[in-house]
Amino acid sequence: MTSQDNELDKIRKLCDQAGMKLTPQRLEIFKELLSHEDHPSAELIFTKLRERLPTISLDTVYRTLASFDELGIIKKLNISNARTLFDTNIEQHHHFICTKCKRVEDIHWPDFDKANLPESVSALGSIQTRHLELHGICNQCLNKKNKG
Amino acid sequence: MTSQDNELDKIRKLCDQAGMKLTPQRLEIFKELLSHEDHPSAELIFTKLRERLPTISLDTVYRTLASFDELGIIKKLNISNARTLFDTNIEQHHHFICTKCKRVEDIHWPDFDKANLPESVSALGSIQTRHLELHGICNQCLNKKNKG
DNA sequence: TTCCTGATTAGGAATTATTCTTAATTAGGA
DNA sequence: TCCTAATTAAGAATAATTCCTAATCAGGAA
Ligand SMILES: [Mn+2]
Ligand SMILES: [Mn+2]
Ligand SMILES: [Zn+2]
Ligand SMILES: [Zn+2]
Questions:
Q1: Where are the alpha helices (DSSP H) in chain A?
Q2: How many CB atoms lie within 10 A of CB A2?
Q3: Closest ligand to residue B75's CA
Q4: How far is B148 from chain A (nearest CA, A)?
Q5: In Å, what is the CA distance from A42 to each residue of A63, A87, B134?
Q6: What pLDDT digit, counting tens, does each position of B61-116 carry?
Q7: Tens of pLDDT along B55-72?
Q8: Which of A19, A77, A129, B24 is deepest in the core (most CB within 10 A)?
């Protein structure tokens, strides 16, 4: 059993539990997501997918990604005010964002994930998730600067 | 000398340093920002401002807020994929965001601001700012739920 | 099988936040 | 006063996302 089969089992179960049909479109969007390790946009998924599924519509991609987000299969990100990105990695992690080239890299920091929040925070409400954004200049952009 | 005079001095100096004229529009937008302790949108500033400056244009508000952001007078926030919010508080701080009502509250956590980042992070590039987003349900929404 | 029903989709129109274009206005310096 | 560069108002344009609707699909009942 390949790792993809494993993932396909997962989506079948999740759709079933949610009472959502696993249509060919949903299945293909899911498979396309599997081939992206990073943070694709709906537009990118749509464009790639159209190569082998020419009749897919952008609306279906948006709708399906929203459903997948609700099911917890992917995560919608709000890290730029341009297009929404989707995270194919649902493990708890954070992000580094290059202010020059907008590159988004995963950051893992389990010690921080476990750290207690200040007391003043619990006074605001019930906290469910924490997400750290580190902004700066990535190495690639730093190199360009030094050379150019 | 009132606290507002103090702030007005600040904007005069900053505009001067940046070689940017302090036009009546920019001054009024700045004064309007002073009256918002929270995270107003460009639209809100525009609407409020139009009451006493009926000819102001939305474009000028957007342009000026972008300039103020570049000068470091305010901070553009990307916490939702709806309208951009601007932070009138430029001191280092973080945010709690209610997933129900979209309320945005400031969080101060100086110990975290001083904490060293993991080594793997410095390998990605040069970090300039850190911004933590805590997502959850605010007390007001929790109360509504219990009552309703 | 055939019919019915509800879910889903494709396609395009609509929405909406933001930016762009352009002509008019402003203010300061020669 | 005249010139020039910066800035503005107004509305058009852009672009990401959502909405609308008719067509398609799939599963169950008859
Ligand atoms: Mn990620
Ligand atoms: Mn704030
Ligand atoms: Zn970069
Ligand atoms: Zn709330």
A1: 3-17, 24-34, 42-50, 58-71, 110-114, 119-122, 139-147
A2: 7
A3: 2
A4: 18
A5: 10, 11, 25
A6: 999 999 999 999 999 999 988 899 999 999 999 999 999 999 999 999 999 999 99
A7: 999 999 999 999 999 999
A8: A77
